[in-house]
Structures are given as C-alpha cells and as structure tokens.
Amino acid sequence: AQSVTQPDIHITVSEGASLELRCNYSYGATPYLFWYVQSPGQGLQLLLKYFSGDTLVQGIKGFEAEFKRSQSSFNLRKPSVHWSDAAEYFCAVVQGRGSTLGRLYFGRGTQLTVWP
Amino acid sequence: GAGVSQSPSNKVTEKGKDVELRCDPISGHTALYWYRQSLGQGLEFLIYFQGNSAPDKSGLPSDRFSAERTGGSVSTLTIQRTQQEDSAVYLCASSLSAASYEQYFGPGTRLTVT
C-alpha cells in the first residue's frame, strides 16, 4: 500500500530564508506526487505535481520540488520564504497510471511558521 | 470560475443526531472525492464517485456513513447517529476525471459533535 512520510511536524524559518520540506513515499511503481498547502480555515490548494518527465517541477507561489527515485523523495523547496507562506503543507501520492482509483494518500503535514 | 463549494461551513450537532454535508463540485468535473481531516488521523480518504456511481467506498469508517451523488454533480455525505469521534473537517474535492488525478478542494465543513 502507498504511504507518505513527512518527517518534520513543525518548521520555523525567518522571512527571506530558504526552505526545504521533506517528503518520502512508499510505492511500488512510479508514483504521481503532489504538494498541497492549507492556510487556516481553508481547503487544500495544489502547489505542484509530478507525473513523469523532468524531475524538477515548478509550482505556484515560487515553489519547486524535486523527485528523486533513488531516495523515494519529493522534497519541496523555496529559495526565499515570505511571511504569507506560513501554512500547513501536505505531500500526497495517488495510485498510479491506468487505475480508476484516484484517491490521494497524504502525509501528516508540516506546519510552517515564518518569523518576520 | 467557481471552485468547489461545501455547505454548511460549520455544523454543531448533538450526539446521536443525523447530519448531511453537501458538496458542489466544479462544473464539468466527473470525479468527486470526500476526505476527512482530524487531529488524530490526519487526512483520510472516505469515498470516490465517478459520475453517480461510487467505485470506491472503502474509506467509509462505518455503516453510519453513506454518500450519494445525483445528476453527476452535487454530492451529499450523510452521517447517521453521530458520535463524538465523528468530529472533524470534511473536505470534498473534484477532478476532471479520475484519470486526471489533479484534485481541487473545497473549503470543508467543520463538524462538531457534542
């Protein structure tokens, strides 16, 4: 079965500093991977996705993520964090291509705090 | 354009009562998903609809939970005889089709069972 691990429950960074949020997945085939962001009281917003091809993917709000098959990782990065990036971030994997099941398996989330 | 909408945004109910949660997906999206978000369990899949049928109900936690979708659009999640452990945020998502995999989420319904 698929599983997603986000090792860091809470991360604090200063505004303007770089950010890396870690995500590891467990899945037999090539996974479809996602990062979502959730602001307080809001639903989930898709930041970026990886299906195939270039292993470095660009997303919205200046975020990027790199798929590393050898490490089963899909870490999220941003070169310079803004105070508005404070939120909870979720990594997710979906059952692979050819399936009719699109259910997402989520990590437990990483809460990001940004100091001014 | 309009995103996924859910109603009510908040619901407080007494233990043992039935509740209905509603989801309006993005127009034209054929796949619809329900998830539950709670402190203890994180984000959990509940059920998936393709059109009006539910090929995957395996995430429903008990037979007190049911869902339907009519006209390939609006979906209702019903919880009968609510229990305190049902307290959570219930999120709905839709996608163009199941094979598109890219899901768009609504703001959720926060359910509190007292």
Question: Which terms summarize this structure?
Answer:
heterodimer, A: 116 residues, mainly beta, Immunoglobulin-like, four-stranded antiparallel sheet, 12 strands, globular, B: 114 residues, seven-stranded mixed sheet, 0% helix
- The oligomeric status of these chains comes to heterodimer
Proportion of beta-strand residues of chain B: over 45%
Largest sheet of chain B: 7 strands, mixed
CATH superfamily of chain B, by name, is Immunoglobulins
Global geometry of chain B: globular
**Average pLDDT of chain A:** 91
List the helices and strands and how they pair.
The complex is a heterodimer of chains A (116) and B (114).
Chain A (H helix, E strand, L loop, with lengths): L2 E3 L4 E5 L4 E3 L2 E3 L5 E7 L5 E7 L5 E3 L5 E5 L4 E6 L8 E8 L9 E3 L3 E6 L1
Parallel strand pairs in A: 2-12
Antiparallel strand pairs in A: 1-4, 3-9, 5-6, 5-10, 7-8, 8-9, 10-11, 10-12
Chain B lengths: L4 E3 L2 E4 L5 E6 L6 E8 L3 E9 L2 E4 L8 E5 L5 E5 L8 E8 L8 E2 L3 E5 L1
Describe this structure in a few short sentences.
With 116 residues, chain A is mainly beta.
